[in-house]
Amino acid sequence: MKETESIDEYILNHIDAESEYLKALYRDTHVKLLRPRMASGHLQGRMLKMFVEMIRPRRILEIGTYSGYSALCLAEGCLRVECCTRSR
């Protein structure tokens, strides 16, 4: 096992479980969208939530929402999240 894998495993064992709606969104992103690796995953999402809870911003502006996974994670820790996207 690589060192980064053991660090990831440790972190995943000590953070909140992924909610059902985030699991469903992550799965749908991988099934329906062209570049699913652009979506934040469980680990990144929990880190975003943790940062928001520590900093406690009143508002967050996310530019480039993609499937909305990270926006939902940010919203778990903040009262107001606004997303700005551009479709082609």
TrEMBL record:
List this protein's GO terms for biological process: methylation
What keywords are assigned to this protein?
A: Methyltransferase, S-adenosyl-L-methionine, Transferase
By its UniProt entry, which InterPro entries does this protein fall under? Answer: SAM-dependent_MTases_sf, SAM_O-MeTrfase
Q: List the lineage, top down.
A: Bacteria, Pseudomonadati, Bacteroidota, Bacteroidia, Bacteroidales
Supply the name of the protein. Answer: O-methyltransferase family protein [C1]
GO molecular function terms noted in the UniProt entry: O-methyltransferase activity
Per the UniProt record, the source organism is Bacteroides pyogenes JCM 6292
